[in-house]
Amino acid sequence: MEWNIYLSGEIHSDWRQQIIDGCKALQLPVTFSSAVTDHEASDAAGDVLGAEENNFWRDHKSAKVNAIRTKTHIANCDIAVIRFGDKYRQWNAAFDAGFCAAMATPYITLHDKDLTHPLKEVDAAALAWARTPEQVVEILNYVIQQQ
Amino acid sequence: MEWNIYLSGEIHSDWRQQIIDGCKALQLPVTFSSAVTDHEASDAAGDVLGAEENNFWRDHKSAKVNAIRTKTHIANCDIAVIRFGDKYRQWNAAFDAGFCAAMATPYITLHDKDLTHPLKEVDAAALAWARTPEQVVEILNYVIQQQ
Amino acid sequence: MEWNIYLSGEIHSDWRQQIIDGCKALQLPVTFSSAVTDHEASDAAGDVLGAEENNFWRDHKSAKVNAIRTKTHIANCDIAVIRFGDKYRQWNAAFDAGFCAAMATPYITLHDKDLTHPLKEVDAAALAWARTPEQVVEILNYVIQQQ
Amino acid sequence: MEWNIYLSGEIHSDWRQQIIDGCKALQLPVTFSSAVTDHEASDAAGDVLGAEENNFWRDHKSAKVNAIRTKTHIANCDIAVIRFGDKYRQWNAAFDAGFCAAMATPYITLHDKDLTHPLKEVDAAALAWARTPEQVVEILNYVIQQQ
Amino acid sequence: MEWNIYLSGEIHSDWRQQIIDGCKALQLPVTFSSAVTDHEASDAAGDVLGAEENNFWRDHKSAKVNAIRTKTHIANCDIAVIRFGDKYRQWNAAFDAGFCAAMATPYITLHDKDLTHPLKEVDAAALAWARTPEQVVEILNYVIQQQ
Amino acid sequence: MEWNIYLSGEIHSDWRQQIIDGCKALQLPVTFSSAVTDHEASDAAGDVLGAEENNFWRDHKSAKVNAIRTKTHIANCDIAVIRFGDKYRQWNAAFDAGFCAAMATPYITLHDKDLTHPLKEVDAAALAWARTPEQVVEILNYVIQQQ
Amino acid sequence: MEWNIYLSGEIHSDWRQQIIDGCKALQLPVTFSSAVTDHEASDAAGDVLGAEENNFWRDHKSAKVNAIRTKTHIANCDIAVIRFGDKYRQWNAAFDAGFCAAMATPYITLHDKDLTHPLKEVDAAALAWARTPEQVVEILNYVIQQQ
Amino acid sequence: MEWNIYLSGEIHSDWRQQIIDGCKALQLPVTFSSAVTDHEASDAAGDVLGAEENNFWRDHKSAKVNAIRTKTHIANCDIAVIRFGDKYRQWNAAFDAGFCAAMATPYITLHDKDLTHPLKEVDAAALAWARTPEQVVEILNYVIQQQ
């Protein structure tokens, strides 16, 4: 079985790459997907459909174009990893967690200890809380490879 | 038809009461539900099941007890109103939005204009964005009563 | 059993009222619902949330507010009646039919004979095609009351 | 991931071919499907099962045979592109849009600006509105290939 | 709780009435529904929509009108009782059983011992096989009333 | 796309082979599945689990073992072809049709003209009625290959 | 809202009555349901359909009759309470827990501390673990009544 | 078709290997999956995420990590084989059976005759009860290979 892993959340650190590299080193049978992580490209996703003067609608249009990608990948994933960093509000990450919870898709949260209180609802519906990408890799290795 | 309205999010202002009062004044056939909004009671929801030394597990236990209530009410609601204030991270509100999106439950977001960019994914899946409780009441009145 | 009947489509003739009156005369245990049929009010459904300079977004906003109502009523109905008149494009009526087909909700189409060719896909997924409101009433009477 | 794209709607212009060619030029990992676009063949789809004197039933039989194909492809697609031209009523396209909306399948509408008002409900449930096949190709390229 | 019981199958003996009377005598909180059991009325269900020269299409039209009723009642029932008599082919009864099986709706079959071999697939997916209406009543009484 | 075709019903004529051969001659991308068609083997499917003195339970046990296979293949098929011959009661074929109807799986019935009245409910939920295996092959060819 | 509470598991102590009494004392808006708790009646549930010489089939028949009741009540409940005592194997209780988990129905486990290791999978999918009926009542009171 | 077989339950005998070897000898097109069967590794599944002083939470954390694997494999399997040995309580096996029942996934139970009474609810929802791994292999061979 090839496992589809969706990587959701923070785009300002290299946690995705660390998980991808860690899984590659272990030769895990995994495929990764994710939202577009180039911030500017993501904000401009809808611009090709015509410029908007009103920022709300520019955001709206881009968010919907991005949703074509994210909904498809989340709906197809076996496991989601949802990362909360220490900056920004990252409501889209919590939104993805709620989506996974409703779809009964297992997800792992990845965040520091000082975020556990505000994330308690998100963690309660998760199947694991990791603090480091290495831990995520170890969990994936166990889940996929252990006899 | 009696409409079930779930009120999710911020618990530090009286937006819920404003919406409830506004609907009552219009005699709309609505029933409201919500998470427990007494912050201390909510944090202590699991304490009756035994004390925890580790705060993570206290939060975990309480969050799960609260989920018995919130999952039931969200699953039963016809419309959710999801409020983001200007303080705190309110990841549970975004989590509820993602849950509603996955369940195809219509939801209305309620937040100030300066939150539109970080909430663009949440707003894109919403069926309306309101800035004031009065606007929510007007939308509910239109949706339920207009001929 | 109280039957919920959703009346979708054309808003420029009194077909809804004829069906409602016909069912009332027969004392059928039915409740009717429908989109907002006041054309101007429907087009303005989102205006309370703020004016839009761009007509596309005004329409978009209003269509989403209307969807709060229509999705809820369609999801709750037992039978939909979907009316196509001889004017206008009425794509929303065909959209509702596709929605019902996907949800396995039985629906009856109501239209003249000269529309049967362009409506063949919509009629093929319907459980009945009626030409007059009286026929719809007779079908409802049979479905609900016949021993 | 191989993306399945369903192309629904107008059959009198070469928009399908333009999208297919555009995606091929970009070497996107996509597979296209569609209803039968040969109008005469489509109208005659049921004739092999026996001739019908009554045109309604000939249409009915053919529409059902065509539905074997279209339901399967729509149910299997990741993204639908739904095209409305300036001629004909194209209720089947709007029907497909409603079907996708109910199944939570992302879809992109493709139509001119002067159709935005009558298509507002269909566009409101879409994740993008494009005016040209080139825009659809750009959106697909972004959704599938962007890092 | 009010239990909805759907009574499917044979229309040439009074088994329905025996079950209804038996449940009434026990004052069980049940509501019964069923297809139209007047054979002629059922065959003519679609006639109000226009006469058909071709018997296949007359049957087709009537069967679809009847399906508005039967699909709704089966979808709403808590338990189906499916009766096979010793005459006629009664494929609609077996069809209803397959429908219930797919929907995970519990059903009880009611038929003589000499039909057990040809009905083995239908019985295998049933939760009980009864030979007499009295047995069905006793089962319903146990299921609903026993402490 | 590889199409999965489930062949249900009569086991006393070679209709399955005719369809398989016809599709092979056309090089259609199809895979066929079916219940076990060796009557004796099918009746004895459960014997390996221990002999039964009571024929009802022998049938029951075998029918359940067979259901492991049939439920899996029906759940995985894109199209079912359901054949009713002129002998036997074939309730399992009608059961399969009801199962497909509830799962929204397209199915084609295959039977002679003199069975149309007793099969009217089964045909009404089908997407095509064919009289010969050749017609089924032509329909499959059209559905799968036609441009 | 009236809450439906399903009480599953051990039948040899009075835990059900304690929960029912506790909720009544608090005037909670709850309705309780449960499997038949009279052990002998439950084992004999299928006897009315005919005696069985083979105990396996007697059990089988009774278990299926009981499933008519239990499946219906579990499918309708808002919350399940699942009790494991210190005697017997109580696999049906764990079976109900797995059923609830798959249906996303919130459940509370009720068992002593010395069972936590063998019940770890069952508890992990639960939303609360209580040791006493009083705790269950307090949780229900909080979930239903707390503001 | 490649069949996915999930092997649930007892980890203290070599029944899994016997089934795997038996299927390999018959060259059945099957893939097997299972929970982690190394007892110590399974109990320690969550330890990488941080040590726990409280055994309940250590179990809880490990059970959730294991659930990432088991939920995925059960959701993907075509058939589950669920084994109950004569030692331990094996509530997780019964939990898996309940999960399969709710998901309509066919399952085969594997246990000795003296467990039939306490397992009657679990067996009633199964499609076969086997006493030996050889019987399971024979059933799989029949289901997959028989013509």
Structure, explained:
The structure is a homooctamer of 147-residue chains. Chain A is an alpha/beta fold and 147 residues long. In chain A, 47% of the residues lie in helices and 16% in strands. The first copy, chain A, has helices spanning 15-25, 39-43, 55-76, 91-103, 120-124, 133-145; strands at 3-9, 30-34, 79-83, 107-110, 128-130. Chain A has a five-stranded parallel β-sheet with strand order 2-1-3-4-5, with helices on both faces. The longest helix of chain A is centred in the middle third of the chain and has 22 residues, at 55-76. Chain A is globular. The G-H interface holds G 55-56, 59-60, 62-64, 66-67, 70, 84, 88-103, 113, 116-125, 129 and H 55-56, 59-60, 62-64, 66-67, 70, 84, 88-103, 113, 116-125, 129.
Q: Summed up, what is this model?
A:
Chain A has 147 residues and is α/β, with parallel strands linked by helices. In chain A, 47% of the residues lie in helices and 16% in strands.
Along the chain, the helix and strand elements of chain A come as: EHEHHEHEHEH
Oligomer state equals homooctamer
User: Residue share in helices of chain A?
Assistant: 40-55%
Radius of gyration of chain A: 16 Å
Largest sheet data of chain A: 5 strands, parallel
Largest interface: A-B, 39 and 39 residues
Number of helices of chain A: 6
Strand order of the largest sheet of chain A: 2-1-3-4-5
Which stretches of chain A are poorly predicted, pLDDT < 50 over at least 5 residues?
none
End-to-end C-alpha gap of chain A: 14 Å
Query: Which outline of chain A best applies?
Result: globular
β-strand percent of chain A reads 15-25%
